[in-house]
Amino acid sequence: MAYSLTLSRRWAAQRWKVKIRDRERLEPPHVSLIRGIQTWRFGLRSRTFLDKEPDPAEVPGELVEEILASWSELQMAWDEMYPENPVESEDDDER
């Protein structure tokens, strides 16, 4: 089952959603920022956008701040959904 971050009314009223979707276990840990038909992937390891399209500049900085404020919650949700691909992996320690 997908995980949805509860956003403030401001972002919900503007149709923003932040989710960890099902069937993404092979991808780098990330959350999907969704507005209408557009989706941006924001990496839970890198804390950066994973794709150039759609343009990350279209995502309000204050929304990104809200996501970063919920970092522990998102990390725990990802790790629970995908324990074989945790946010903090052993590979990270070797870097």
Annotation, overall tally of beta strands = 4
pLDDT averaged residue by residue: 93
Separation of termini?
32 Å
Strand order of the largest sheet: 1-2-3-4
Low-confidence stretches: none
Q: What would your notes on this structure say?
A:
By secondary structure, the chain is α+β, with helices and mostly antiparallel strands. It has one domain (3-93). The protein has 4 helices and 4 strands. Strand 3 (30-35) and strand 4 (38-43) form a beta hairpin. A 4-stranded antiparallel beta sheet has the order 1-2-3-4.
SSE map:
Blueprint: E1 3-5, H1 9-13, E2 16-20, E3 30-35, E4 38-43, H2 61-69, H3 71-81, H4 90-93
Antiparallel strand pairs: 1-2, 2-3, 3-4
Features:
31% helix, alpha+beta, 4 helices, 95 residues, four-stranded antiparallel sheet
Structure, briefly:
The protein is α+β, with helices and mostly antiparallel strands and 95 residues long. It is 31% helix and 21% strand.
